[in-house]
């Protein structure tokens, strides 16, 4: 469960259940550089303890800057960062109770996996035998114990990520921060590793805050999605809530799979798998459209269309099951009618 408030919108907790303990709270958090618009503009956010939270948005939206301010790797212009109620805004990174997994993994190439994991304990003066045993235990936990003596250059990308995770966990953080940890991996390994991240988060019971620009990744991992745009939080909710009830036109378009249309009663979003299509000669009420693209996607066919709406002509898409398309195949240039059930039309907030 996550809650956010800022000048664009509010998402209060309306549940009658007792609120979850809060791991991280951001209060009017702002980051300004010398010139231009703020990178992060007075955001407010509460992240529940033991949850997996994804900060999601396009490049330049402020998500990585937010993560770095939580970590202590970026100074705060105004506002506060609280961890379990303790103000950590001005504390050095090592004193915060957080740990960071970087996009590049940032492993020391000349050290073994074991020594990479144990390095922070060495810097704290922990005895060699103790730090190596604790490092070995963590490597065993992430299925890397048998490769403890290998150097990063002798490990695959997925193996390096497991070492980086063990290294972050050895400091016993209360919150683990992940900065696009899957972006350097190939697509197949990315899917495998996100499943492992989710499993580790549940087993460890830690709060994970994960920055990503991938909608698919956030939906697969998150309990709470925080969608950012231009330094602001646009919406906070579960993946199901954000995908099915986008708060704004930006979110509907950014999440994908939605058509945004102007109607006499206002702007709406309709998922492309909820749009019904029929020949233009159909007597059913609906929106006139012309087929402009046909893409076979295996289990479904994606149709692109130019549709008439209150704002003029707009591009929309319709996802048809393969069997339905086989029964009534549509071709480029076909005139059709589009319709949807009223409950599938979701009103969008005014810009």
Q: Which terms would index this structure?
A:
351 residues, alpha+beta, Rossmann fold, OB fold (Dihydrolipoamide Acetyltransferase, E2P), 2 domains, 20 strands, 26% helix, elongated
Give an overview in words.
By secondary structure, the chain is α+β, with helices and mostly antiparallel strands. The chain folds into 2 domains: 2-244, Rossmann fold; 257-347, Beta Barrel (OB fold (Dihydrolipoamide Acetyltransferase, E2P)), CATH 2.40.50.100. The chain is 26% helix and 34% strand. The chain has helices spanning 63-71, 113-123, 128-141, 157-169, 187-204, 215-221, 239-244, 249-255, 322-327, and strands spanning 2-5, 10-11, 22-31, 40-48, 52-56, 78-83, 86-87, 98-101, 175-179, 207-212, 224-229, 232-237, 258-263, 266-271, 276-279, 287-296, 300-309, 312-321, 335-339, 345-347. α2 runs parallel beside α4 and α3 (128-141) crosses α4 (157-169). The longest helix is centred in the middle third of the chain and has 18 residues, at 187-204.
Secondary-structure-based class equals alpha+beta
Q: Report the CATH architecture of the largest domain.
A: 3-Layer(aba) Sandwich
Which sequence of SSEs, written as H and E, runs from N to C?
A: EEEEEHEEEHHHEHEHEEHHEEEEEEHEE
- Segments where pLDDT lies below 50 for 5+ residues? 1-18
């Amino acid at each position: 469960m996550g809650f956010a408030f800022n000048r664009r919108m509010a998402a209060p907790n309306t549940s009658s259940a007792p609120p979850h303990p809060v791991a991280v709270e951001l209060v009017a958090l702002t980051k300004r550089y010398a010139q231009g618009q703020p990178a992060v503009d007075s955001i407010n956010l509460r992240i529940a303890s033991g949850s997996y939270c994804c900060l999601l948005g396009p490049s330049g939206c402020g998500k990585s800057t937010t993560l770095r301010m939580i970590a202590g790797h970026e100074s705060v212009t105004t506002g506060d960062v609280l961890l379990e109620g303790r103000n950590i805004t001005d504390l050095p990174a090592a004193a915060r109770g957080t740990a960071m997994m970087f996009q590049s993994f940032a492993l020391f190439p000349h050290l073994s996996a074991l020594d990479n994991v144990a390095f922070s304990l060495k810097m704290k003066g922990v005895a060699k035998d103790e730090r190596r045993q604790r490092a070995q235990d963590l490597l065993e936990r992430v299925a890397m114990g048998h490769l403890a003596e290998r150097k990063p250059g002798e490990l695959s990308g997925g193996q390096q990520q497991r070492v980086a995770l063990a290294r972050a966990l050895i400091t016993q953080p209360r919150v683990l921060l992940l900065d696009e940890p899957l972006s350097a991996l190939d697509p197949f390994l990315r899917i495998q590793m996100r499943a492992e991240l989710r499993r580790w988060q549940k087993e460890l019971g830690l709060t994970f805050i994960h920055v990503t620009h991938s909608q698919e990744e956030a939906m697969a991992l998150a309990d709470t999605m925080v969608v950012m745009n231009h330094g602001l939080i646009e919406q906070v909710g579960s993946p199901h809530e954000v995908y099915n009830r986008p708060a704004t036109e930006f979110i509907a378009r950014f999440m994908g799979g939605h058509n945004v249309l102007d109607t006499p009663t206002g702007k709406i979003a309709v998922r492309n798998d909820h749009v019904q299509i029929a020949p233009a000669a159909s007597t059913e009420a609906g929106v006139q459209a012309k087929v402009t693209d046909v893409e076979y996607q295996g289990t479904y066919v994606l149709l692109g269309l130019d549709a008439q709406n209150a704002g003029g002509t707009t591009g929309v898409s319709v996802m048809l099951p393969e069997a339905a398309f086989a029964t009534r195949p549509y071709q480029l240039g076909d005139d059709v009618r589009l319709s949807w059930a009223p409950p599938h039309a979701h009103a969008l907030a005014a810009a």
